Amino acid sequence: MRIVYLAAGAAGMFCGSCLHDNTLAAALLALGEDALLVPTYTPIRTDEQDVSEKRVMFGGISVYLQQKWSLFRHTPWAIDRLWDRPRLIEWLASRGMSTDATQLGDITVSMLRGEEGNQRKEVDKLVHWLATEVRPDVVHLSNAMLLGMAHEIRRQLKVPVVCTLSGEDIFLEKLTPPWYEQARQVLRERARDATAFVALNQYYADYMANYAAIERDKIHVIPHGLKLAGHGTRVRSDAQRELVIGYFARICEDKGLHHLVDAFTLLAKDKDVPPVVLRAAGYMGASDRPYLDRLQGKLKAAGLHDRFHYAGELDRAGKIAFLQSLDVMSVPTVYRESKGLSILEAWANAVPVVLPAHGTFPELIEDTGGGVLHEPENPRALAAALKEMILDPERATDHGRAGQTAIQARYTDDLMARRTLDLYRRLVDAPVAERALRA
């Protein structure tokens, strides 16, 4: 089957969606499928072997120029190639291409409008390339912000269009008026153009069915799967005297590191708790540097600056080594998490977790037994849950092993690819009339 997977690049940032898309495409290729992973906006970034095409559709520079100046909506396609080169986009992204929703309201609405928006030329380029050079059996969009492409793909190519639901509400809820209201309305309208949707868990499937007015039976739940090579069980050194609490996620307020710092401060002052240190790792953009500086200042004021370490962003080997250095991990997100990839990675290394009881976390904990929940946005509740885990190492070990067993049984890249392929086959084999009814 010829599959085109259109993935939204994240301007040089490690993001869960890019990691998910690359792992899925690689697993489909491993199954012998003809899968093309095609970046949009910017090249993708992953810590595994990058299997994406060396071209970028809807190049970020073109999208911006066509939004701001009408002249660029009419330039010849050959001229556009000057600024659609992946290396140029990558270079510009490394110098601060914005992903701040508060600055992207007009472009967001225009992109969702697809052939009726300012980037109509980019829709034409994409559909022309798909129709003349690729001729796919199915096209998969990596998130609902790309739904503006779906109408013309289906109208001209007569193939199913699948769309993954991947935390869009977090971005949309930060849009400012009047773009927020417009984007919500256009999203509901454009959701009708997709043949089917994929969510990584039941929570987000149910949530987005209401948020984007999608018929619930059009959303298929296919959990993320990990490439397990390299992951394994941590062996704790007898010489290690301090217990290690870990955080692995993007360094930003949304992910809640400040709550973990507050909980850690409480634990460090608790005489019933053995010596603990806090280690964090993950991508940090330049705009989030002041956030980390504030947290480090807070720890310094508490006399704990030498018990905190930020390891920076890590490659795959470094990530696994970091996870295997932890006794327990927490990512106390402020928002309701829709994916939780780093939690799956912790479990792949038998690391128990403590998570807020919202978003997909309760569902993941119930399915795996890999940790415990705490009241969201409550550092004291987080500290209490961490304390229970620290004071009962046997229980912590059991949680970690339960999580690892679940990952190895139900959250692998091969299983994710087979489930996705089964969905593609059912959609492709469905009569055209039935597909039209489902749109």
Describe the structure.
The chain is α/β, with parallel strands linked by helices. 45% of the residues lie in helices and 14% in strands. A 7-stranded parallel beta sheet has the order 3-2-1-4-5-6-7. Helix 10 links the parallel strand 6 and strand 7. The longest helix has 18 residues. The radius of gyration is 22 Å and the shape is globular.
For this entry, give a set of tags.
7-stranded parallel beta sheet; 19 helices; 439 residues; 6-stranded parallel beta sheet; alpha/beta
Q: Provide mean pLDDT, rounded.
A: 93
Beta-strand proportion? 5-15%
Terminal CA distance: 22 Å
Radius of gyration: 22 Å
Low-confidence stretches: none
Query: How many DSSP E strands?
Result: 13
Largest beta-sheet characterization: 7 strands, parallel
Q: So what's the overall shape? A: globular
Helix content: 40-55%
The computed structural class is: alpha/beta
If strands are numbered along the chain, what order do they take across the biggest sheet?
3-2-1-4-5-6-7
By DSSP (H or I, 4+ residues per run), the number of helices equals 19
